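Z., the sequence and structure:
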Amino acid sequence: MAVAVLSAPPAEEPATMAKTKRCAGSAARLLALAAMSLSSLGLSSLALSTPGLAQPAPAAGQAPAARPAGAPPRTMALPRIRPWTGDLDGMLKRRTVRILVPYSKTLFFVDRGRQMGLNAEFGQALEDWLNKRHPQRNLRIYVAFVPTARDQLLPALVAGLGDIVAANLTVTPEREAAIDFARPWMRDVREVVVTGPGAPALTRIEDLAGQTVHVRASSSYATHLASLSRRLVSEGARPIVIAPADENLEDEDLMEMVHAGLLPFAVVDEHKAKVWAEVLSGLTLRPDLVVHAGGEIAWAMRENSPLLRAELDAFFAQHQAGTSFGNTLRRRYFTDTRMARNALAEDDARRHGELLGLFQRYGGQYGFDALMISAQGYQESQLDQSRRSPRGAVGIMQLLPATARSPEVGISDIGTSAENNIHAGARYLRHLVDTYINDPGLSERNRTLFAFAAYNAGPGNLRRFRARAKAEGLNPDVWFNNVEQAAALIVGRETPQYVSNIYKYYTAYRMLAERERDQARGTTAPDPAAASLPTGSDAAAPNPIAPDPATRPRTP
């Protein structure tokens, strides 16, 4: 199958250079607002629709047709991205519009080469819309998706590494000071609290005083929680403790964690919570606990882009929520049921406590964080030594007996002995790292995440994932938002979901360990979420290959 490759942008014209200068003020304000550095921008590759495979656009305002099961996939392109900051007229000359998106199983993801998600469908509709309104013989306009870490979306936009941000962004004054928004595609959005099993009792929004709430620092939830907290303090109450969540965790991830009891509650957009509360039995929507009301969700663009703004305004007038098209997409992409289990449920916590000594012993022996290895054991078997798979894998770490007996591992009796099973799993992970993942430039966190991917999909597939990531212009040394995308292209979502779940369980075990340490020191935390979640930056992330699990992980 031919793969569409985006040509390099043309040299910047004088008018574009003037616009670039006008964008400099926006960049300065945005960087000050987000406390980020563009030098740390880890931009991923573009995803393009393949020429000749575009589906006909539905009539304006009509529901999009479901993609046939056997339809050819849209594939990833192989361009190198250069900064470019023009308006729609320049995009039409280039025949390309670049949309920055977060890599998310709701908004945008790739499964065996096929682009899926709410934004993938919106992008296809925009592509068809533009080609109908601005036709040029034999030169189709392409919408290209640029999967980008959520906390890097707006800096990338201002820097000219994309033309639009489609990320379910709420319009806020802070954001409007640095960028422009198109006509909202959803209005009257409320940000509400969702609670999980065992959450502290909340009867009114003021009961959040003194509670710890994990939200992405880049989100509007953080802005609105801070405003609510200031109001509570002015009324004599305690402030809300706003803890930064990992920027790799999307809203649906946080809701899964609440449902599973890993977090007591979260703040999310009500329209998302309504759908997920029907899917996640442990998630309770609290429409009476409103953090912010009257919000608007819109696509973002650079300042001084009047032509693009007018085009998007016209597009969303016929594709916004309330139209058949908008409503169909909103329903279609909020129904993923692969979710995290409750790693802190009573029975699971008891098993974890009973086995922690073994994870500490063999994690320390082979240079791994005991909590990370125990999180993998939970993903494999829910820490159940009696577990057997149809393929013959056994025990907590779900190893094949033949693998355990191999010269690389050399441990027998993994089916009846939990200790031998954990020992074999840790030794096999060490073998994978030493043999296939020994690049000196890798961060320790990514080395471990790669080891988990190899454990699940095999070391040969890991080599394919990293090679494909490099070919796509992604970073072959970083798992999240990079190699995980290549893995999804090659084997589908199983391996990315496997690694993602381990990371969530690791977060849960860290919170449990920190709570127990606080209790031992006489400083009790109100709930497991009182500990801070790891954040998305590799530089600031805790070292997951650390033989001393008692060392408190660093948080930024």
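The CA atoms of residues 116 and 396 lie 34 Å apart. Residues 494-520 form the longest helix (27 residues).

Let me know what you think.
H.
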